[in-house]
């Protein structure tokens, strides 16, 4: 079943259950505390927190999401994309646990010929919050899932809150068993690779106060209006329904893997185990396919590369895609081949990526060319430093790595990798302390000159939101860990 059909069935099903179909909001989050839309519920936050009255009591959507926090997992697990689509159904003070559970079970297990997804019941597992006997009983009463496939999980897995005083509540999640070839027996509590999480049902039922962390707070009462917020990963369901090994091989992503394989002359083999000699290259191709798609969708939603905030995330995605191609042996510009492949895979659902492709591709190609120039300029300097280090039998100094970063815009991960190729280690500790010093200097300067963070207000205004979001430095820091 193609992605487009999966989402069509989703919306049709929930509309038939009285939900209003709401189009996806932008990836650029409407919530000022978030850089991006990270879940289907984000556009509904004002309703879920009862700050605004919703125009409907039931809604459904297929929401574009970006989760940069998952970037390290991409290509290594079967199930984490930086971009993905979250199918959701929502109740604002209308139905609660029982119907949410019934709807989920019905849609997943109704036969394909009858408009459902036709998943075999014996492949499904469920988790509930350890104290939520009500949810467990409802699964047992209303569905064919037996008690031995319902597991209890603690707060860190199965409790939802914003980390702020307000609504919170237990979750119940649905997992699909991919079979013994993918890991050990024992349900999702034992193996989250074999048992893939596909759908999270959040039961917002309590008011919490005195919040110390996501798992430490006081429940002060029941919400007057209880809400349902659910999210199913469309790509994860597509991976199951299309019988492929991971979400990067589904119809909206795979064509870019094939293009990367063609350009690099490497075979893509679906390697899942790190012991497989093809694994390293296969992961790179999956990273390329994921990041190219995320870049396409971000630029379509108005993000442009920069050194701060959202633009920095986009820059980093493009650089990681280009770097992965480089590691696959392709040193010339490759987005002009990869981006159209991603566009063609996405345009059926998102016509804007085709209609606006001129603008999107101009931005993406310019960013790739700029990065390739950076690489070219820094390489000569790096080669010199490597020769010196080798002659002296020492590491490449932290000062050299810092100069490459500071003067040539050469990311530390690139330095590490190229030094490693040349058989030279890098004094990373010194590099980090120089970065730290520079940051402190910059902060002191900004304070002295402008009295606080005045320089960031321009950025805040650009974003048209009330809160400054500046992740550039932190992201730079973590870039070194990204290979
Ligand atoms: P996981 O534990 O696998 O990282 P999660 O618990 O972080 O998933 P939720 O926050 O519960 O995910 O989001 C709801 C659903 O969205 C998940 O059940 C999953 O199907 C999907 N999803 C979450 N993160 C991703 C991602 N990075 N790529 C693809 N789908 C995702
Ligand atoms: Mg996660
Ligand atoms: Mg999870
Ligand atoms: Mg979850």
Automatic annotation (TrEMBL):
<keyword id="KW-0820">tRNA-binding</keyword>
<keyword id="KW-0436">Ligase</keyword>
<protein>
    <recommendedName>
        <fullName>Alanine--tRNA ligase</fullName>
        <ecNumber>6.1.1.7</ecNumber>
    </recommendedName>
</protein>
<comment type="function">
    <text>Catalyzes the attachment of alanine to tRNA(Ala) in a two-step reaction: alanine is first activated by ATP to form Ala-AMP and then transferred to the acceptor end of tRNA(Ala). Also edits incorrectly charged Ser-tRNA(Ala) and Gly-tRNA(Ala) via its editing domain.</text>
</comment>
<keyword id="KW-0175">Coiled coil</keyword>
<keyword id="KW-0862">Zinc</keyword>
<keyword id="KW-0694">RNA-binding</keyword>
<comment type="similarity">
    <text>Belongs to the class-II aminoacyl-tRNA synthetase family.</text>
</comment>
<keyword id="KW-0547">Nucleotide-binding</keyword>
<dbReference type="GO" id="GO:0004813">
    <property type="term" value="F:alanine-tRNA ligase activity"/>
</dbReference>
<keyword id="KW-0067">ATP-binding</keyword>
<keyword id="KW-0963">Cytoplasm</keyword>
<feature type="domain" description="Alanyl-transfer RNA synthetases family profile">
    <location>
        <begin position="1"/>
        <end position="483"/>
    </location>
</feature>
<keyword id="KW-0648">Protein biosynthesis</keyword>
<keyword id="KW-0479">Metal-binding</keyword>
<keyword id="KW-0030">Aminoacyl-tRNA synthetase</keyword>
């Amino acid at each position: 079943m193609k992605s487009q059909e999966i989402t069509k069935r989703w919306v049709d099903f929930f509309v038939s259950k009285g939900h209003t179909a709401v189009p996806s909001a932008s990836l650029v989050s409407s919530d000022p505390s978030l850089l991006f839309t990270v879940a289907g519920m984000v556009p509904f936050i004002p309703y879920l927190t009862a700050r605004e009255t919703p125009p409907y009591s039931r809604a459904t959507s297929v929401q574009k999401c970006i989760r940069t926090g998952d970037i390290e997992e991409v290509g290594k697990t079967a199930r984490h994309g930086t971009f993905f689509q979250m199918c959701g159904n929502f109740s604002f003070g209308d139905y609660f646990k029982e119907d949410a559970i019934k709807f989920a079970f019905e849609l997943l297990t109704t036969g394909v010929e009858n408009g459902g997804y036709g998943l075999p019941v014996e492949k499904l597992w469920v988790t509930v919050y350890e104290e939520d006997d009500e949810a467990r009983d409802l699964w047992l009463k209303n569905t064919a899932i037996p008690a031995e496939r319902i597991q209890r999980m603690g707060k860190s897995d199965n409790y939802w809150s914003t980390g702020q005083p307000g609504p919170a509540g237990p979750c119940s999640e649905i997992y699909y068993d991919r079979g013994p070839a993918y890991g050990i027996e024992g349900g999702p509590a034992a193996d989250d690779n074999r048992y893939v999480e596909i759908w999270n049902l959040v039961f917002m039922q309590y008011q919490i106060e005195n919040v110390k962390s996501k798992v430490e707070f006081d429940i002060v009462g029941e919400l007057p209006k209880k809400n349902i917020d659910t999210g199913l990963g469309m790509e994860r369901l597509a991976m199951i329904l299309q019988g492929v090994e991971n979400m990067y091989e589904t119809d909206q992503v795979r064509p870019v893997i094939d293009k990367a394989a063609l350009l690099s002359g490497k075979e893509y083999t679906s390697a899942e185990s790190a012991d497989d000699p093809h694994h390293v290259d296969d992961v790179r191709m999956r990273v390329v396919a994921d990041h190219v798609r995320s870049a396409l969708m971000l630029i379509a939603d108005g993000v442009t590369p920069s050194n701060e905030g959202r633009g920095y995330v986009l820059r980093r995605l493009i650089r990681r895609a280009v770097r992965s191609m480089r590691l696959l042996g392709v040193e010339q510009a490759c987005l002009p081949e990869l981006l159209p492949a991603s566009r063609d895979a996405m345009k059926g659902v998102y016509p804007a990526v085709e209609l606006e492709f001129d603008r999107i591709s101009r931005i993406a190609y310019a960013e790739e060319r700029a990065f390739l120039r950076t690489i070219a300029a820094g390489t000569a300097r790096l080669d010199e430093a490597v020769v010196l280090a080798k002659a002296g039998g020492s590491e490449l100094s932290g000062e050299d790595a810092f100069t490459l970063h500071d003067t040539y815009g050469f990311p530390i991960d690139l330095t590490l990798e190229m030094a490693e190729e040349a058989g030279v280690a890098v004094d990373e500790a010194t590099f980090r302390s120089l970065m730290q010093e520079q940051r402190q200097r910059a902060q002191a300067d900004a304070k002295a000159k402008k009295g606080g963070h005045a320089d960031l207000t321009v950025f805040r205004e650009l974003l048209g939101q009330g809160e400054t979001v500046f992740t550039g430095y932190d992201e730079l820091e973590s870039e070194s860990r990204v290979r």
